[in-house]
Amino acid sequence: MSLKERLAADLKEAMRRRDERERNVLRMISALHNAEIAAGHELDEGGELSVLTKEAKQRRESIDEFRKAGRQDMVDKEEAELAILSAYLPQQVSRDEIVAAAQQVIEETGASGAKDIGKVMPALMQRFRGRADGRQVNEVVQQLLSGS
């Protein structure tokens, strides 16, 4: 079953259970549909994963902003939505796995300083597509290339 089909089936089930929060989150199928329209064809699994990753990233950013604003009610709402979304995303890699892969890519590319982040990041993000937050990967690469 494709991701899109799984989301549609789970949406129907959430509607039967009258679970409004899950129903609203799973309606992101419209985001997948809009992405397909923009692309002009059906998305492959990587494209679908990209849309879900973007949705999860938006939730994380919203959580940060709501925390700064002292809106715990909205933080709780966004965290619950992120938990629902996370069930459809691949298992996230650990920081140690990112460090190990970053060290390997740094050796392969011959990167030696902060100016070489542009050589390392694309290879790492390709390797961890959908399984690692770009901010965390960037942070690890910066630390390794700055020598701290």
Large-scale geometry: globular
Q: What's the level 1 CATH class of the largest domain?
A: Mainly Alpha
Strand content: under 5%
Q: CATH-wise, what's the superfamily of the largest domain?
A: Uncharacterised protein YqeY/AIM41, N-terminal domain
Helix content: over 70%
Backbone CA Rg: 18 Å
CATH domain fold name of the largest domain? Hypothetical Protein Yqey, Chain: A, domain1
Number of domains: 2
Largest sheet composition: none
User: What are the low-pLDDT stretches, counting only 5+ consecutive residues below 50?
Assistant: none
Describe, in short, the structure shown.
Helix content is 76%, strand content 0%.
What does this structure look like?
The chain is mainly alpha-helical. The chain has two domains: 3-86, Orthogonal Bundle (Hypothetical Protein Yqey, Chain: A, domain1), CATH 1.10.1510.10; 95-146, Arc Repressor Mutant, subunit A (Orthogonal Bundle), CATH 1.10.10.410. The chain is built from eight helices and no strands. The protein has helices at residues 3-17, 20-26, 29-39, 45-69, 72-86, 95-109, 117-127, 134-146. Helix 1 runs antiparallel to helix 2 (20-26), helix 4 (45-69) packs antiparallel against helix 5 and helix 6 (95-109) crosses helix 7. The longest helix has 25 residues, at 45-69. It is globular, with a radius of gyration of 18 Å. The termini are far apart. The mean pLDDT is 85.
